[in-house]
Every structure is written in C-alpha cells, then in structure tokens.
Amino acid sequence: MEEKFKKLPLRDGVGIIVLNKENKVFVARRIDNPKNFWQMPQGGVDKGEDLLSAAYRELEEETSINKVELVKEIEGTITYELPEHLLGIIWKGKYKGQKQKWFLMRYLGKDEDINIKTSKPEFLEWKWIDLEMITTVVVDFKLHVYEELKEKIKKIIN
User: Fewer CB near the last or first residue (10 Å), C or N of the chain?
Assistant: First the structure.
C-alpha cells in the first residue's frame, strides 16, 4: 500500500443481513462492479447518527426495504481495506476501508415490495441465497467479512 494511503482512516459503516422466512439471505449486484459479485446492503454512518438508525436508513435507501424486525446486533465490528486499485477512488479518496457494525434483520414484507430502482440506485439486481453461498458470491477483499458473518449468523439462527 502506498504510504499516502496508509495514513487514511477507516470509514464508519454498517451492514445489514436480511433474512426471509426461509432464512435465505438478501444479496444484490452493484452497478459499479459489472462482474458477478454480490453483497449485502451496507453503507456509511452520517455524522451524529447512531449505528442502528444508519442501518435502517441504508437498507431503505438501497433496497426500499423498511418492513424488518431486528433479530440481533452482531457482536463487535469487522474491518476491511480496499485493494490498491480502488484506493483514492472510492469515497472520494478519504478512506482506506471500513469498520463495520452489522445487524441481523428479518424481512417481514413481500418480495414485490423490494425495489432497488431507488432515487440513487446502487444495484442492478437482487436475489435470496442460502447462507452457505454468501462467501462464494462476494468480492475478494470482503471475503473475510462474509466468512466471519456466516459463522456468527449460523450460531444465531440454529
């Protein structure tokens, strides 16, 4: 990592694991990454915003999902750093990665209520997948995040 990027801070972020009634996980494919990588909803925390509020806001902004119940706040935080080729590009070059707080939520709505064609769309398409599959669809620099989450989610839902 170039010296100038090492000094950059991590961005405070939240992530949301949304489960449907069959315990399948919501994932979506990003507009800005045309490869076949999928992710769970996540985003930054606004100044003065608490983490749970940020999670609800990000979820609705990205997916129109607002009919959820909080199952559990995932213990601790998980961090990731951007790969070299994205440093200085993503987040206007202000951060080298994210420190994320994750929340497990149960979706209470209907699939027809999910709308990723929001005012500032981030995703091309979405689907429900088995929990086991989340580590096979994620971009490589977030793989460790999804591996850790998968194990924590298994303990909660089993």
Answer: C
